[in-house]
Amino acid sequence: MSAPFRLADPARARALAEAIRLLAPPEPVKIVHVCGTHEVAIAHNGLRRLLPETVTILEGPGCPVCVTPASDIDAAVAIAKSGAVVCSFGDMMRVPGGRISLEQARSEGCDIRTVLSAKDAVKEARETKKEVVFFAVGFETTAPMTAAIVLDDPPDNLSVLASHKLIPPAMAALLELPDHGIAGYLAPGHVSTIIGTGPYRRWLDRYDIPVVIGGFEPLDILYALALILRQIADSAPKVENAYPRAVDAPGNPAALKLIEEVFEVRDAAWRGIGTIPSSGLELRAAFAGIDARRRFNLPEAGPDPEIPGCRCPDVLTARAVPSDCPLFAKRCTPLTPVGPCMVGAEGACSIWFRYGERINP
Ligand code: SF4
Predict the structure, then answer these.
(1) Ligand 1: which atom is nearest the Cα of residue 342?
(2) pLDDT tens-digit profile of 186-215?
(3) CA 142 to CA 15: how far, in whole Å?
(4) CA torsion 102→105→110→114, rounded to 10°?
């Protein structure tokens, strides 16, 4: 019987680091990932220290909480102020809205509850007679769970404020920025377990850029980076799956069916980036009865407020790293967050602060 593949193998890590060193071009190369879990793995395991000076890796719009527009938070606050219960994930609570955060609204007396899953919001609704709204944020990984509660005969007093977003259109949108400088994408393993490989081809083929799906162990990431650099060296960009133990080409058909049945794709506002075509999920007309946007009289969506000095827009578009921000680790810390990237556990600033991360230290 052959030995199982070891996820923590120093010899293999050294070999991959050497392969990366040999494959790295002499000129600077910027690789971007779009996943907070990747950033945690990179920072926690000190992987940037293994990269040659010419290779940098940055987190782009990989934190769903950070990219949720202030107008959606304002909508949730308005719903809570109308007397309804608002349920959302803990990370959302401290993200600044146009005026206040959900946490501040709670301190003003609003009934805002933290839940761990969409199902918890259903439970809250079944245990009260009040209107309950699930503020549904997240990427392709969480959208199926929201879809599942919509289809599972939800209680009449439950509605959904949908703010789900799709990752491949955001990856394409970054490549439309004139100064993006992105040489390759490390694509997110979690999202890819749901969507498979097809959407990357659909959205990114026209840009001739390496896209490698990677897992979350240090060896997974180093291996994916080596494949990206090999594609660059060979001038042969393509979509490659370096996480086959979790990701199949078709993704998860059952989860995709749930999303398809409940949501339709629409243009969506991403905080710090702007409106990205076909990047959001809106409840289909058949589910208008459970759509909080229709059930409540919501304020007009306004633009995201500019936060003086905060470089979240540059961090979310992978044009800056957290330490480029003059407020980083000074006025802005996880205890005193100034921008959304310091609030969410998957936000680059919060991760860099927690692990003392630096660029190619
Ligand atoms: S350190 Fe704070 S202020 Fe600076 S970009 Fe990050 S979240 Fe914004």
Answers:
(1) 7
(2) 999 999 999 999 999 999 989 999 999 999
(3) 36
(4) 20
Rounded CA-CA distance 68/101 in Å is: 12
Q: Is 0.70 topped by the overall pTM?
A: yes
* Tokens of residue 12, six digits: 């293999």
Residue 5's pLDDT is what?
A: 56
**323 DSSP 8-state letter:** G
Q: Which residues of the chain have pLDDT under 50?
A: 1-3, 361
Residue whose C-alpha is closest to residue 75's, from 138, 159, 139? 159
Q: Which domains does the chain have, with CATH numbers?
A: 8-307 (3.40.50.11740), 312-355 (no CATH)
Query: Which pLDDT value is given to residue 1?
Result: 42
Q: Determine contact, residues 135/88, Cβ cutoff 8 Å.
A: yes
**Measuring from each residue's beta carbon to the nearest atom of ligand 1, which residues come in under 6 Å?**
310-312, 315, 322, 325, 327-328, 332, 338-339, 341-342, 349
CB 280 within 8 A of CB 139: no
Q: What's the rounded Cα separation, in Å, for the pair 79 and 89?
A: 16
